[in-house]
Amino acid sequence: MTSRSRRAFVATAVAALLVGCGGHPSGAAAGARPGGARSGEASAAAPSAVEPARTPGRSVPVGLRIPAIGVDTRLTRLGLTPDGRAQVPPITAHDRAGWYRYSPTPGQKGPSVILGHVTVGSYGDGVFRHLARLRHGDRIAVRLENGGSVVFAVTEVRTVAKADFPADAVYGDVDRPELRLITCGGPRSGSGYLDNVIVFAAPASANP
Fold first, then answer.
1. CATH number for the domain whose boundaries are 3-206
2. Where are the domains of the chain?
3. Is the distance from CB of 116 to CB of 98 less than 8 angstroms?
4. I need a surface site. Which of 14, 33, 119, 193 has the fewest CB within 10 A?
5. How do residues 4-58 score in pLDDT, each as one tens digit?
6. Is the dihedral angle over the CA atoms 31, 168, 154, 141 positive or is it negative?
7. Strands 177-189, 110-115: pairing kind
8. 103 with 112: CB under 8 angstroms?
């Protein structure tokens, strides 16, 4: 990511990045600033998260698998709404997570961001309903459009008030491929939630 695109990415996130997780079609806001009450161990350094034999190059993500919490979902691509806010996955019976396409693709240097619902209105639980249960070392596999895959391991799980969303930690520069999974959590307020759950993950090879 160039310094210019990185600045635009962070500015967008600070201003308006939302993740749906409430009980109505418009979703509930995630913190708009780069989180958490509960944290695991810090990231360990590593050069790459891509499995060399299976991932020949940059490719957009199309699927996400998290065995520890039973997630196996296709990914939608999320952009921006006309008012400059990040799109969220649609509220449907067959809920999917979504990759924010203005973040790096998984396996490329920088934080790739995937958003998902914790609840989907009258349909019940969302795809990220158990995200807060992840623990240090749990594996996350991202399937790519080119047939390859990228494997990450959880380094930290935070639950943070939306008003204190840590934009720099979530969207800031890193010197390797990383992954962020974001949903809502904590107590409910009306049709939404007061907190965000943020999972930080780094190359699995760095976290044996």
1. 2.40.260.10
2. 3-206
3. yes
4. 14
5. 445 445 544 443 344 445 443 333 334 332 322 222 222 222 223 333 334 345 7
6. positive
7. parallel
8. yes
